[in-house]
Amino acid sequence: MTSSPALTAATTVGAAFQRIGITCLADLSSAADGLKATGDPEAIHQMRVALRRLRAAARFFERRKPSDHALDGLLAELAAARDDGVLLAAVEAVEGEIDGAGLATVWRERARTSQDILCQTVHGPRFGVVLDAADAWVRASVTASDSLLLLDFGCAGLTHCDRRIRRVGGGRFRDVAPSDWHPLRIKTKHLRYGGDILAPLFPGKAAQRYRKAVASLQDRLGALTDGLVAAQMLAATPGPAADRFLALQNATRHERIAAAAHAWKRFWTSEPYWCAQKK
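Structure (tokenized):
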């Protein structure tokens, strides 16, 4: 369960980042304890959510972590466990249709291996080092904007994120090249997490509708890019079953594109709520 730190319009930028960062690390530690106790893959998801939110907050509040920061290795292990798990679930969902028992077995073993690597990290001494280093970074990180009020800084940040998305494709999703789907999803993710960070300041229905539109766009773009990632990953296990799986993915590609186009239009017709409320 993701925790929410207490933030108000009068909170300073520096205080906001520290509260969010400390909360994210507490969520990460709690999820890791759950993984140790149960081995539940849901705990891996919650760890990833906590770190994604911390990374998003660092970007939104213009924090730079050291290039050799201890979090990088943990993020890589979480990403591997996530990608292997997503592909395994997709293969298992159509296993009967593609005669894919052998393919599922291969990816089940890969998913188990990536999860085992992560579990070893969580159980080992390095995880404590990671948490300590991250906590020290959150508490010591300062920027020139730290004394600004969260409302002013946050509205400017949301405007920047919103405009980066609207500059892509000229408002028409069919003009967005497949090679731009992933960069667009990243831009949408930054806006989504920025909106989540400032949600306590904007509780109204207009803000909720906008955040839902952004979340829907990110999810639909994720479905498109997951298909591209699956094709790249399956190159490691070529064969008839992999070919049939990719054929099924291609057969439904137009449906995923149509869903993304609908979400794109919904986003474009959503008014930035923070401008009106700030006035």
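The longest helix spans residues 205-234. Residues 149-279 form one domain.
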